[in-house]
Amino acid sequence: MQKEFVDTSPLEFTLTATMDYDRFLRSSDKREEFILTLERGIRKRHRLKFQTRASKVIVLARLDLHGAPHKNPPEAPYKPGQWLDETQLHLYREGFEDRIAYEMTDAPGWTIGQDVGDIQMLEGFLRYCGITNWPQIQIGL
């Protein structure tokens, strides 16, 4: 579903400082609301999380960069019971919520590699989630 930002002020993206905020999204037909979360770790500053949610609590997609390794549930359809490295894409799946993660090379529909910069990963995530016409990304330290 195509989504757009409610507030079109610039997205603030820090390169080294802690960052944790939400921005509201809505469907193009204005009938559904979503939340985009951008977060940079406190202790581990290179850790990033980009996430979209529906109904305030249902995680639709989450991209973890340089986070903790993740173990898929034993009954998962992708790499059941296996550990994935610190960069993975979590996708909502009924019955599993967001507990199933994919390596970037195997993530359904993901088209960019994981060896690009943080801003390119953010833009790739926005595209992946169907977010169009996003505001300027303002880069700070």
Topology of this protein?
Blueprint: E1 3-5, E2 11-14, E3 19-27, E4 33-40, E5 48-54, E6 58-65, E7 70-71, E8 83-84, E9 88-91, E10 101-102, H1 118-128, E11 137-140
Parallel strand pairs: 2-11
Antiparallel strand pairs: 1-3, 3-4, 4-5, 5-6, 6-9, 7-8, 9-10
Any low-confidence stretches, pLDDT <50, length ≥5? Answer: none
Number of H- or I-type helical stretches: 1
The main sheet comes to: 7 strands, antiparallel
Q: Whole-number average pLDDT?
A: 94
Number of strands: 11
Give the helices and strands as they follow along the chain: EEEEEEEEEEHE
When the domains are counted, the total is 1
- Output the radius of gyration: 15 Å
End-to-end C-alpha gap: 33 Å
Describe this protein's structure.
The chain has one helix spanning 118-128, and strands at 3-5, 11-14, 19-27, 33-40, 48-54, 58-65, 70-71, 83-84, 88-91, 101-102, 137-140. It is mainly β and 141 residues long. It has one domain (3-140). The termini are far apart.
